[in-house]
Amino acid sequence: MAVSISVVLLLLILAVIFVRSGGLKFSHALVCLLLGFYLAGSSIAPTIHSGITATASIVSSLRP
Question: Record's superkingdom (predicted)?
């Protein structure tokens, strides 16, 4: 578990650096893709899923 969390943090830091630099190349997209896969397999995945679901329900209930 500690190894997967450290990999997630490393990939998250790399993704933030890539996005802030403004140039998203294929290698950058691959790092972001790997970050998504590692996050989906981590213990924080249910929390992320419930947060996204709650946000989507709030946005869908808004009236223009």
Answer: Bacteria
